[in-house]
């Protein structure tokens, strides 16, 4: 039996990169997947790939930084598949790497609205459906920028909020058998950072800084998310799974 057989999962930010890899992995393991992203282009392609592989999938284009949209995504999943078992909050916005004294307040607001507010809104509207199911799994995607020095103060701050939120919610929701865990990626080979790897000299210098000497791939995060979402982690909550090839050591 597939590890997510008969499960319904929402994956936000699933139009590319880590989110797309998680959605595909979940579908491979039998989940009915709802893709959610701000862009139609990416999720429509991911949907096609999942369907061609025999998976069950729907998608919705929506911006989770607005609460009504987060509600819409959760409602959409239940309308399409009848219930909700798994929520992966992967959608994120990095923003600029400006120093604090030069940071644009509007950019700071946008980062928090997507990363922190959006995550909370998605959880808020997923919980009632999971309570109906007598349980569920929430995986919030953080960042190892909260574990190591970074040039992205706004992004790191927002992901710090996600880490604290996950830990707090895990205690609050435990009585409902809703597990909440955090997946913490290091720099991952996604379109967002592909420029590093397109330059052989830059890529070599970068890889030399990684203890394991290997770049984290989106599929590595997908495997981690699969474990946290599955019944194999049925007694795992309030924890963090760091997948960064040792970058935060």
Give me the count of strands. 7
Spatial arrangement of strands, main beta sheet: 3-2-1-4-5-6-7
**Oligomer, anyone?**
single chain
Q: Please identify the structural class as seen in this structure.
A: alpha/beta
The rounded distance between the terminal residues' Cα atoms is: 37 Å
Helix tally? Answer: 8
Query: Topology as H/E string?
Result: EHEHEHEHEHEHHHE
CATH hierarchy: architecture: 3-Layer(aba) Sandwich
CATH superfamily annotation? NAD(P)-binding Rossmann-like Domain
Please state the CA-atom Rg, rounded to the nearest Å.
17 Å
Tally of distinct domains? 1
What is the average per-residue confidence, as pLDDT, rounded to a whole number? Answer: 94
% residues in beta strands? 15-25%
CATH topological fold name: Rossmann fold
Q: Give the biggest sheet.
A: 7 strands, parallel
Low-confidence stretches: none
* Shape designation: globular
CATH class, anyone?
A: Alpha Beta
Residues in helices, as a percent range: 40-55%
Family: Belongs to the short-chain dehydrogenases/reductases (SDR) family.
InterPro entries: NAD(P)-bd_dom_sf, SDR_fam
Organism: Terribacillus saccharophilus
Keywords: Oxidoreductase
């Amino acid at each position: 039996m597939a590890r997510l057989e008969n499960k319904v999962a929402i994956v936000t930010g699933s139009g590319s990169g880590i989110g797309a890899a998680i959605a595909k992995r979940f579908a491979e393991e039998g989940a009915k997947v709802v893709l959610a992203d701000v862009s139609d282009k990416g999720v429509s392609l991911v949907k096609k790939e999942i369907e061609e592989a025999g998976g069950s999938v729907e998608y919705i284009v929506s911006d989770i930084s607005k609460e009504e949209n987060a509600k819409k995504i959760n409602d959409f999943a239940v309308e399409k598949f009848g219930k909700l078992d798994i929520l992966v909050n992967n959608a994120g916005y990095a923003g600029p790497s400006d120093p604090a004294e030069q940071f644009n307040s509007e950019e700071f607001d946008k980062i928090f609205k997507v990363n922190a507010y959006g995550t909370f809104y998605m959880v808020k509207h997923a919980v009632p459906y999971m309570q109906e199911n007598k349980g569920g799994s929430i995986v919030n995607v953080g960042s190892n920028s909260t574990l190591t020095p970074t040039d992205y103060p706004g992004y790191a701050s927002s992901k710090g909020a996600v880490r604290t939120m996950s830990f707090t919610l895990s205690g609050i929701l435990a009585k409902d058998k809703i597990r909440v865990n955090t997946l913490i990626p290091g720099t991952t080979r996604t379109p967002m950072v592909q420029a590093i790897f397109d330059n052989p000299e830059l890529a070599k210098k970068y890889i030399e800084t990684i203890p394991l000497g290997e770049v984290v791939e989106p599929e590595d995060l997908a495997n981690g998310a699969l474990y946290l979402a599955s019944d194999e982690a049925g007694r795992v909550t309030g924890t963090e799974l760091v997948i960064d090839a040792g970058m935060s050591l």
